[in-house]
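Z., the sequence and structure:
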Amino acid sequence: MSRHALVLAGGAGQRFGGAKLLADWRGRPLVVWSVQTALAAPVDGVVVVVGCRASEVRAALDDLADPRLRLVEAPDWDDGLSASLRAGVAALPPKAASLAVFLGDMPLVDPSSAAPLFDAVEAGAVAARLDHADGPAHPIVFGRAFFPDLLGIRGDRGARSLLAGRADVAVFNTADDGAVFDVDRPEDLDPAVGPASLRAGPRS
């Protein structure tokens, strides 16, 4: 039984104007940051789901030589976020016990934040999530028992929608602005944009 991470990187980035995950963020393509975050989390494997401009996203990740990394393609990526989620869950190894979900457009998530979420799931919670004063945060960790629910989700919505009102989900509060910062528009790439705590430079 093992811990795994999933990076959703299949979308077109329409609000951004296209090719969002390939845009430069502090010297590297945006998607590279999210995948490196997942690799730095306490996981045994990382699945990255590509879709729109798949060959270019794959090329952007070529330098990440890590045997834990696997890229899979969601052929129906334009059906919405759930298509990438389903493709990623389906690609997990049979003995995967838990899964942390990261988004490809969130470059400042703290990889260490996944550890207490994994611990909570291993202690019996069906899933574990972060809450921030500004809204829902990432990553989210799901236990194996929740995988069928993830495979059944449809439409342009993520896994968080499945957790509402459940008493068996562990919730942790976080003040880390990186857990809620995502790139939606080209101006979000400007270091002057976003929470003040994120303007000083790259995470160490």
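The chain has a mean pLDDT of 90. The beta strands are 2-9, 24-25, 28-29, 45-50, 69-73, 96-103, 127-132, 135-143, 169-173.

Let me know what you think.
H.
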